[in-house]
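Q: Could you write out the predicted structure for this multi-component system? I'm mainly interested in how the pieces pack against one another.
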Amino acid sequence: MSQAIIEVNQLTKQFKAKTAVHKADFKIAKGEIFGLIGQNGAGKSTLLKMIGGLMYPSSGEIHLFNHAVSDNHAYFERMGLLIEDAGLLPHYSAYENLDLIAISYGLKGRKKHINELLKLVGLDESNKTKVKNYSMGMKQRLGIAVALMGSPDVLILDEPINGLDPQGISEVRKLILQLNKTGMTIIISSHILEELSKVATKYAILHEGEVIEINSKEELQLKCEERIEVEVDEARMAIPILEEQLNIKNYKVISDGTVYVYDTHIENHQITKVLVENGISVHSILKHKQSLEQYFLKRTGSEVDSHD
Ligand SMILES: Nc1ncnc2c1ncn2[C@@H]1O[C@H](COP(=O)(O)OP(=O)(O)OP(=O)(O)O)[C@@H](O)[C@H]1O
Ligand SMILES: [Mg+2]
């Protein structure tokens, strides 16, 4: 397991009577794309603002790079943020926008850094177009360039695909994957699990301020994959029958009495029929299929179980 570079312990934010984030606990490893999924008002922006140093927690702790930030706020400088609004100046070009920020940061070698950033996010350095005439996708990529100013170790993107058309979404997704390939750790929030699943390596589900579940990519795939779950007395007796008589090749023996079949062109009743004909009693057979969105809605209490 790689080293955790972000750790939050019991992190809480209280706004008067409203608990926006309640005792969040998790770790993020270097190089991970950590997806934070939650519906409107779940507390995503509040949590990201605390991790990015834009908002003080009411209680709890944040450790960045193995140091408690309460001891030294300088660690927040290693975080690049795009939260809610990049603060772009509409009457300036992309280059001018970045240059103003570079000046305020006191960066050396501004021109080179800015041109590299513009290239990285796919914007033309010589383009004099004012940002007010940019497409949403271009603005968002420029917002990411702003967040990357000063070469942070971690990039925090709050709903970066919100309001983008499919092409804009695809551009931002490609950029995220490309940045991650260079070793960048990324935290990204969304209210669409399907979209997040195209980039994230780990997922935290945030619901009404609480982190209710954390899944690796593999765990989530397992929860959402399409399969037939077959329960019999002895799986090893059932396998040759399924292989020979139904030509089932994609399966996994989960336990002595459970087989998962992934050849989903096969119907449940076909499996039951051949097994019973061969003297094997079938205790249960269940088609397991749910989309990522169904899973998310189910976990956040918005939809009933979708098992057939
Ligand atoms: N500054 C604030 N003062 C009072 N309440 C706030 C403040 N900021 C957020 N909240 C409340 O905290 C809760 C979480 O808000 P937050 O913006 O973090 O959610 P979110 O998951 O980012 O939602 P969205 O998907 O709409 O962006 C909401 O109920 C919101 O109204
Ligand atoms: Mg938000």
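A: Regarding packing and overall arrangement: Residues 44-45, 158 surround magnesium ion (ligand 2) (CB under 6 Å).
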